[in-house]
Design a protein that fits this description.
heterotrimer, A mainly alpha, B alpha/beta, C mainly alpha, B: alpha/beta, D-Maltodextrin-Binding Protein, domain 2, 2 domains, 12 helices, 11 strands, C: mainly alpha, flat
Chain lengths: 498, 320, 155
């Protein structure tokens, strides 16, 4: 018992508190800047933390982690730029809210959702880590295939009213994802003799291009017409308790989804955000409002992706297995400090583990503090006229894409995807399915081929394992119902017109 | 207002003119290309070396990850970098393997100038602690009884842990179902813990924490000497199989880099490698430091190339 | 107008699907139990083709024009031209950055784009094209240790 108290003491020491504050602030900045990811931030900070005590260094790194996952939502909401891939789903409703002048509301809910999601993830981490780990371990290639197919079925719900075009967009995304070296056999696909394409299409370049650069082009198109800047409402922003209660179920569901997906070693915050968004839409009474600036969309996406911070720590602490890319770096950080991650950590360094929990708690709380406190500052960004904002956004996008691998080719890719995204939107092709497919395509293909290799070429493995069969069935049902729902909505629209 | 403006203009001009002069190396920051993803052994080693080397070189040393194609992408990037010594590539064992497999259009002596070897980690045969195999002998006997049934998790074909499994097959005359894990060693270890594969052939470092926690058991290591941490584990040579294979990490630069620059890089990073902070870090992380100078390293690469060529030929992996 | 646009889009989709299928088939598709590298792209290409046909069919079957939001003023040809020029400027910007580095090329970029988008106040323009590159340079290169493009011409 004293371990717990001494652990709490470690986390609340002055150095640790300063460390977590710096981490959260740094993380938010890195998360908001497109191209710079949480993984990169934590990887850069890890060697610097070698000289600090484990409690202080983990406080800083954990703060950076939660800050970065939240930070992506700021640029996603304000300038339709996914600061991190996890913030992609936040764009769908966050940006339309900004266009209506409700950026403050979106940012406020994003902060609240991120904080609460992270807290709920932390709760599961503290209370039921071993149980969840057992569930996570039961996932192998067939289950990941099921998960990926279920994720791809989300394409239909993010297609809005253009389901056929959405599916084409998704198919295009799957094709784009195959560019590069075949992950199983190593032969090259679709690289047209370009060494630059050997590694495939950088996901961040594609996301930045499709969402942010294309929007910059849109702004360029309309900049002469829109004479007034959209006034952003910045009062009465903190969500009322009544409103929070009204969304309690949504928040809880998204957080649980995020925690579980975070606990899966092969899936991270981006997938969690999409799955939460999809589930929110599916179970909503007004699904047609999603994508038009409906706050539920922002809540679902942000709560889901931040819950991953707690969830991904679960396999890390119980088995020394990272739950996502950032926790992979944290694993290394723990080892650098001479700690032995895994079940022995709880036994030998109980106090440290509790100090990690406390640092996560403080970090999530700080998200709320900085997030809400910073709304006025953040919204000033969009107050800048489009004529000056567009060049800034374009530079940030290309530099961000470049920064991922120090390669100007990635920046050029982002520009190309920007043109593609712009043209697609002109032809009413939704862009989100393409993004989703690029994220999930590789997982689906690799998992399928791994499953077949494991099972000596028989497809039966997908049906004989309960979880993968279950996921595939859910995916099929989801596709069926989504298409039916889209048809119903289209008929309603037809009826309203005549 | 005008004064503020002129201050800003001066600042800008200064920045624009801050281009360093050639001739005093290093005159600006050095970039290390790490061909693996953040969080893995290569990345951790690169970042720690970078940090320790900064005061030695007096310049910033930054690590950039260029991931993809089982290290092929980063290696190709490193080969095409400007030969001025400011871009150092951390070349792993795949730099010798990819040209043999036809995955890349270059060969090491044509595009790279080696600086030094940094570390080497052997492959190892690891199974779950609760599996029925207590020794490598048990494992091989079972494999002979049911060829192609036992599942070994390794990384994608053509990468080192896969070759380790192939070497195991060749040396012991057994056959397994080799399941590829393109994501690296960690996903394979996860599936081993979950019971979805029966064994993995990654290095002891990748399974270290789980072995120490009593969840996994290493049956044998594929090196000449026993592992420093897991001294109870026999080497394959001790058990009668001439298998010594593993991954290694080194620093290389593009071929045209001047020798004087290479010497500065070599001396600086050698000092970094000897830094007690780095030594302790490597020990904690399970990375085996193994310094060899450029000449010894080049010789080693030649030996490795011959060994891999033999294995690839036996497995029909060579390009047609 | 909309129908032509949709027809062109469908045709483009079909073309891409056919091309992708062809390229996928040059890789070994493998057998049904052991899919090769060409399997996945091949299946996706077939799906895309099918969807393209569906889209084409819908385009022909559509009777009434979809109602557009009357409150939005439609874009003029000049607006589209502006976007095209902007895209071209961006492409040139990236190429020049490769040769001359971030610090030299970005200020003119800021200036030209702001002018293109209609900004005319000289003081604002000058401040913008100086402060923005400096701010980005300081935050990325100095604060975050993320190197910015250097310019091949100089080294």
């Amino acid at each position: 018992m004293e371990d717990i108290f001494s652990g709490i003491g470690l986390a609340f020491s002055p150095y640790a508190i300063i460390a977590v504050i710096c981490g959260v602030v740094g993380g938010i900045v890195v998360g908001a800047l497109p191209g710079l990811s949480a993984t990169m931030a934590v990887a850069i900070l890890t060697p610097l933390s070698f000289g600090m005590t484990p409690a202080v260094s983990m406080a800083m790194l954990l703060g950076t982690y939660v800050g970065a996952v939240y930070g992506g939502s700021i640029s996603a909401i304000l300038i339709r730029t996914p600061g991190t891939p996890a913030a992609c789903a936040t764009i769908f409703d966050g940006y339309p809210m900004t266009q209506r002048g409700e950026a403050g509301k979106a940012l406020g809910w994003a902060a609240l959702g991120s904080c609460v999601g992270g807290m709920i993830g932390l709760f599961f981490l503290v209370v039921s880590a071993p149980l969840i780990t057992r569930f996570a371990l039961s996932f192998s290639a067939p289950e990941y295939f099921g998960l990926a197919i279920f994720g791809l079925s989300i394409i239909i719900s993010v297609s809005g009213k253009h389901v056929t075009r959405g599916m084409i967009s998704g198919a295009a995304g799957l094709l784009v994802a195959t560019i590069g070296m075949d992950p199983i056999q190593g032969s090259t696909r679709f690289i047209f003799n370009s060494m630059d394409l050997l590694g495939g299409i950088s996901l961040i370049s594609a996301l930045i291009g499709l969402f942010a650069v294309s929007e910059a082009f849109n702004s360029a198109e309309t900049v002469m017409r829109e004479s007034e800047r959209i006034k952003q409402i910045i009062n009465g922003l903190f969500p009322l308790w009544r409103e929070i209660k009204g969304h309690a179920v949504l928040i809880l569901k998204s957080a649980v989804i995020g925690t579980f997906i975070g606990a899966l070693p092969g899936a991270g915050a981006d997938i969690a955000a999409f799955v939460s968004y999809n589930e929110a839409r599916r179970s909503s009474r007004t699904p047609e409002k999603f994508g038009t600036g409906f706050v539920d969309g922002v809540i679902a996406a942000e709560t889901g992706n931040n819950a991953v911070t707690g969830g991904a720590m679960i396999p890390l602490l119980t088995l020394a297995i990272p739950g996502d890319a950032v926790t992979a770096v944290l694993l290394g950080a723990l080892m650098i400090h001479g700690l032995k991650p895994g079940p022995m950590l709880m036994a030998e360094n109980r106090d440290l583990v509790y100090s990690f929990f406390c640092s996560l708690f403080v970090g999530n709380l700080l998200l709320l503090v900085f997030g809400i406190g910073g709304i006025k500052v953040f919204t000033k960004v969009v107050a800048l006229t489009k004529r000056l904002l567009v060049p800034i956004i374009l530079i940030l996008c290309v530099i961000g894409a470049y920064a991922v691998g120090n390669n100007l080719f990635d920046a050029k890719l982002a520009l190309a995807f920007g043109v593609l995204g712009y043209l697609m939107q002109k032809a009413d092709f939704p862009v989100a399915p393409l993004a989703l497919a690029i994220i999930l395509g590789p997982m689906a293909e690799v998992a399928l081929r791994q499953s077949l290799i494991m099972n000596h070429g028989s497809w039966s493995i997908l049906a004989t394992r309960p979880i993968s069969l279950g996921l595939l069935i859910i995916a099929a049902l989801s596709i069926f119902f989504s298409i039916r729902q889209a048809q119903k909505e289209n008929k309603k629209r037809e009826a309203m017109r005549s | 207002m005008l004064r503020k403006l002129s201050v800003v203009l001066c600042l800008f001009t200064l920045l624009a003119l801050s281009a360093p002069r050639a001739g005093d190396f290093p005159g600006k920051g050095i970039t290390i290309i790490c061909t693996a993803a953040p969080g893995g052994g290569s990345d951790a080693l690169a970042r720690m070396l970078a940090q320790v080397a900064e005061p030695i070189f007096g310049q910033s040393v930054v690590v950039v990850n260029k991931v993809g194609g089982a290290n092929a992408v980063g290696l190709s990037e490193g080969a095409r970098a400007r030969p001025d010594g400011y871009t150092v590539t951390m070349a792993t064992v795949e730099v010798v393997m990819h040209p043999l497999l036809g995955n890349v259009p270059w060969k090491v002596p044509d595009v790279f100038k080696p600086i030094m070897l940094l570390n080497s980690d052997p492959g190892a045969v690891t199974v779950r602690a609760d599996s029925p195999w207590k020794t490598l002998g048990d494992f091989l006997a079972d494999a002979k009884k049911r060829p192609g049934e036992i599942k070994i998790g390794c990384t994608s074909p053509g990468s080192i842990w896969h070759i380790c499994a192939a070497a195991l097959e060749e040396a012991s005359g057994t056959k397994y179902n080799l399941v590829p894990y393109p994501g690296g060693a960690a996903p394979a270890v996860v599936d081993l813990l979950g019971g979805h594969v029966d064994a993995v052939t990654v290095s002891p470092a990748e399974v270290g924490p789980q072995v120490e926690a009593g969840q996994l058991r290493i049956l044998a290591v594929m090196s000449d000497k026993r592992d420093e941490k897991f001294t109870g584990v026999p080497t394959m040579k001790e058990l009668g199989f001439n298998v010594s294979i593993g991954t290694w990490r080194s620093f290389v630069v593009p071929k045209a880099t001047p020798d004087a620059v290479v010497k500065v890089l070599h001396d600086g990073f050698k000092k970094a490698l000897e830094d007690p902070k780095l030594v302790e870090f490597a020990r904690n992380r399970g990375l085996g430091l193994d310094y060899r100078n450029a000449a010894d390293f080049t010789r080693m690469m030649g030996e490795q190339e011959a060994m891999f060529a033999k294995i690839f030929k036996a497995y029909d992996l060579l390009p047609k | 107008m909309r129908k032509t646009r949709d027809l062109v889009a469908s045709a483009f989709v079909l073309a891409v699907a056919i091309f992708a299928f062809g390229a996928a088939m040059t890789q070994s598709p493998g057998q049904i139990g052991h899919p090769g590298p060409g399997f996945f792209p091949g299946v996706v290409a077939v799906f895309m083709f099918a969807m393209g046909i569906l889209l084409l069919a819908k385009t022909f079957a559509q009777k009434s024009e979809i109602e557009t939001d009357k409150s939005i003023i439609p874009s003029t040809r000049k607006d589209y031209l502006r976007v095209g020029i902007l895209a071209a400027i961006c492409a040139v910007y990236l190429e020049l950055m490769d040769y001359a580095g971030f610090v030299l090329v970005t200020p003119p970029f800021c200036l030209i784009v702001a002018l293109l988008l209609g900004e005319r106040r000289p003081l604002v323009l000058i401040l913008h094209c100086i402060l923005v590159p400096v701010a980005i340079y300081v935050s990325f290169q100095i604060l975050l240790s993320v190197p910015l493009p250097d310019g091949r011409a100089f080294y």
